[in-house]
Amino acid sequence: MNLRIFDSTDDLIRAAARAIVDAVPPGVATSIALSGGSTPKPLYKMLGESPWREELAKSPITWVVVDERYVPESDPQSNSAMIRQTLFANGMSDGHRFLRFRTELNDPAKTAEEFSREWQSLGLTDLDLILLGIGDDGHTASLFPGTEVLNVEDRIAAAVFVPKVDMWRVTVTKPVIRAAKQRMVLATGEAKKPIFEAMRNGADYPIAVVTRGLDATWFFVDRAAAPAR
Q: FRET pair for 223, CA 20 to 30 Å: which of 28, 96, 125, 209?
């Protein structure tokens, strides 16, 4: 496990911002997928401001939403709205594109199909970088333990009803995450420590399933989340 441990969340966020900018070659078209949640929110805000915004503006980037709660963009729970309000608070740079899940279609399966169609129309193949988080139950994206979406191997995106949160969600699938050229996982807080320790012992949490055996995966964690050595 490629583990980077930081003394504070602020240190983690700054390092993640630097790593993302460094992963984008100047002038080279790049695809970056972003997860929702509270942990990456300050990261996106940082990337949307100087000097990071200007650095990222040097390259054509397709920003992709990793997963979405099935709510309108006007809902505070919307991942795409959070990304717009932080990363794009000062506008989207020329040459940048944004692929989100169109929940306004009011049909989770159709939304996943439309996302896949747009993915292909934009010419996307394997993502260059995907940013992930970890839930206290070991889920990542909207791949929750025990849900059928974990078995989907033939689609870019899929809809899934998650009984734990009593909500439909839409998400990129396991093969999309595993095919990405790089994976960056952010985790903070003591609740994540047992997840990491169980992963070291072979536990099949979704975050383990999508990262296991892939060297180009970096875990950025604070000391509270870091497993015992």
A: 209
